């Protein structure tokens, strides 16, 4: 395999505390990174850089770890642009549109679903996302959930079984029966293709008792736990996530003091999804409150056709800084190292020897520009597993 030297880096964000200038991002100036066999082999000052087969000139710009998008719903068909337009004209978001996407997804063949995932995954990659989690949740039959996860697993090892997204129409008023299906045959069919299990724990979706039952059998079957929690209103989702030692509680928009304290006292990452508040015109989660309490915060896109149809981590970083009280450094950390924590990974979201060579090169002198220049395509080059994309 060809080795690469990424050289002439003006600002290298390592996410290694105590490195270089110290601080959260472990910034080094005038640096170079050697990439061999898909991994980072060396980092150091440009002037001491070892030889490599090829040189990539960062042109004095910033280089960051690839973004880790730890929350995305990419296996679906159709879109819901009309629902978005109605919301922008004053309709509230309730999650009811999920059933529209379920119908379109069930009617689609495998190739259509696969092409849609590929389109969104490459869109995300061009914007610097090198690790992405993909959920099922728009199939909601045994066969459709299994195939959603089979297709997702073609693109990422971070696959999540979300059979408990909503109760599908054929189980209307029979939520107990649907939960039985999810916990039994659906979980058995999903298990070979999934690493995680998730539940939308919310009014109108699944209550805490149902969510606990589903997550517990999933955990017993060897899946890691994540929870859609406290998105549309206060609820028990966050407390449940902490109780079950979930890797992540996602959304965290409506939190009580006890919720914040529970997250701060746990290993459960609070994954904030500002694209959802943007696209549903809702109040943003208070990242400042979580950070000040000592919770670990991640940022992710929640990419899906209903509540957040963006694949852009730079857009989420900009929103988090402008709307959620995060500093640019905190937001960049949350979109890289934070996402890695939310997926319990230590080989991504960081630039250190031995980590995966996932690098983002910016046409900007520092990471600050991700929030300072919102909407501008600053990502000029992406290395994924050591290979230029
Ligand atoms: O994370 N909250 C539940 N699920 C998605 C929305 C799905 C949809 O509206 O299609 C979310 O926001
Ligand atoms: Fe989601």
TrEMBL record:
UniProt keyword Iron, yes or no: yes
Entry keyword set: Cytoplasm, Histidine metabolism, Hydrolase, Iron, Metal-binding, Zinc
GO molecular function: imidazolonepropionase activity; iron ion binding; zinc ion binding
Name of the featured protein: Imidazolonepropionase
Chain sites annotated for binding N-formimidoyl-L-glutamate: 138, 304, 306
Entry EC number(s): 3.5.2.7
Signal sequence interval, chain numbering: none
Task performed by this protein: Catalyzes the hydrolytic cleavage of the carbon-nitrogen bond in imidazolone-5-propanoate to yield N-formimidoyl-L-glutamate. It is the third step in the universal histidine degradation pathway.
Residues the entry annotates as binding 4-imidazolone-5-propanoate: 80, 138, 165, 231, 307
Entry-linked PANTHER family: IMIDAZOLONEPROPIONASE (PTHR42752), IMIDAZOLONEPROPIONASE-RELATED (PTHR42752:SF1)
Catalysed reactions listed for this entry: 4-imidazolone-5-propanoate + H2O = N-formimidoyl-L-glutamate
Species whose genome carries this gene: Asanoa hainanensis
One Pfam short name: Amidohydro_1
Cofactor binding note: Binds 1 zinc or iron ion per subunit.
Domain (Amidohydrolase-related) ranges: 63-367
């Amino acid at each position: 395999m060809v080795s690469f030297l990424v050289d002439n880096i003006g600002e290298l964000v390592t996410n290694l505390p105590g490195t270089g200038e110290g601080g959260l991002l472990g910034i080094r100036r005038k640096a170079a990174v050697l990439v061999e066999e898909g991994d980072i082999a060396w980092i150091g000052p440009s002037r001491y850089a070892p030889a490599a087969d090829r040189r990539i000139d960062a042109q004095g710009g910033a280089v960051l770890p690839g973004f880790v998008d730890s929350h995305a719903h990419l296996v679906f068909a159709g879109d819901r642009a009309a629902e978005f337009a109605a919301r922008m004209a004053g309709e509230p978001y309730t999650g009811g549109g999920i059933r529209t996407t379920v119908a379109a997804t069930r009617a689609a063949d495998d190739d259509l679903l696969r092409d849609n995932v590929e389109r969104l995954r490459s869109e995300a990659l061009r914007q610097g996302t090198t690790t992405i989690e993909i959920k099922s949740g728009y199939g909601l039959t045994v066969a459709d959930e299994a195939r959603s996860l089979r297709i997702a697993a073609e693109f990422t090892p971070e696959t999540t079984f979300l059979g408990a997204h909503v109760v599908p129409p054929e189980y209307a008023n029979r939520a107990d029966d649907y939960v039985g299906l999810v916990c039994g045959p659906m979980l058995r069919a999903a298990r070979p293709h999934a690493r995680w299990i998730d539940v939308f724990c919310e009014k109108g979706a699944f209550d805490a008792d149902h969510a606990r039952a589903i997550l517990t059998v999933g955990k017993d079957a060897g899946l890691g736990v994540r929870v859609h929690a406290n998105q549309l209103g206060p609820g028990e989702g966050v407390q449940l996530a902490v109780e079950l030692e979930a890797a992540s509680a996602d959304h965290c928009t409506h939190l009580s003091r006890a919720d914040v304290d529970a997250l701060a006292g746990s290993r459960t990452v609070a994954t904030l999804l500002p694209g959802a508040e943007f696209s549903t015109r809702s109040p943003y989660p208070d990242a400042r409150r979580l950070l000040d309490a000592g919770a670990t915060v991640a940022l992710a896109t929640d990419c899906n056709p209903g509540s957040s149809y963006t694949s852009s981590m730079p857009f989420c970083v900009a929103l988090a800084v402008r709307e959620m009280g995060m500093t640019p450094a905190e937001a960049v950390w949350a979109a890289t190292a934070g996402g890695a924590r939310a997926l319990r990974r230590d080989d991504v979201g960081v630039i250190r020897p031995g980590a995966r060579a996932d690098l983002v090169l910016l046409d900007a002198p520092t990471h600050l520009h991700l929030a300072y220049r919102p909407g501008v395509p600053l990502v000029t080059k992406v290395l994924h597993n050591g290979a230029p994309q």
